[in-house]
Amino acid sequence: MNQCGNQQKQKSEELWRRLAELKVSANQKPLGSMEERADALEKRFWGKVNKGEGCWEWTGTLHKSGYGGTCAGKSRTGKNGTITTHRLSWLLTFGDIPDKLFVLHKCDNKKCVRPDHLFLGTQKDNMGDAARKGLLSKPTRKSTKLKKEQILEIRANKDQLSNKELALKFNTSAPNIYHILKGETWKTIL
After folding, report:
1. Which of 13, 81, 121, 166 has a Cα-to-Cα distance from 64 of 20 to 30 A?
2. Contact 120, 98 (CB under 8 A)
């Protein structure tokens, strides 16, 4: 085998070892050599990608979250699962994803697997990026501004009504009532 062939085989074996650590199976057929498995996985993966001018969109299965997913073997918890396609794209293109790092999208397109649209970051980076771009959902819990009189009434009724009943009465949440009664909020009103 020539030097280029050796490098390709070495790359395939290295890739397959990395993917095997994640326990990603290359296909449902009997497995061949590491090189064959890596090549099969890569071919199957890129075969389900629509390479457009901008984003390269995954055309296979999508999670409820909107991210692409592909079959995987056992997860770290031992359950059958999937791997998100943007993570697999990173692995195929750049190699390992260090512990505690996430593969993030520059383009904010959940189906995108284009390697140059991806970057590594922490969960804090991910949340900061989403906040800056206005991608975080608004809280859905009940939110009211309670008045001094209402706080006093909540405290006066603590033995007669449950936190849930107080929350319904004052259009707020049971945890909010709990914090009021514990003196963790509204500390200035006695």
Report:
1. 121
2. yes
Domain ranges of the chain: 3-132, 140-190
How far apart are alpha carbons 34 and 184 in whole angstroms? 59
pLDDT tens digits for 32-51?
Answer: 666 776 777 788 889 999 99
Question: 113 with 68: CB under 8 angstroms?
Answer: yes
Residue-wise DSSP of 112-161: B--GGGEEEE-HHHHHHHHHHTT-SPPP-S------HHHHHHHHHTTTTS
- Are 110 and 65 a contacting pair, CB within 8 Å? yes
The CA distance from 25 to 105, in Å, is 25
Q: Which range, of 67-81, 92-106, 116-130, 147-161, averages the lowest pLDDT? A: 67-81
Token digits of residue 24: 């990603």
Evaluate whether the domain defined by 140-190 bears CATH number 1.10.150: no
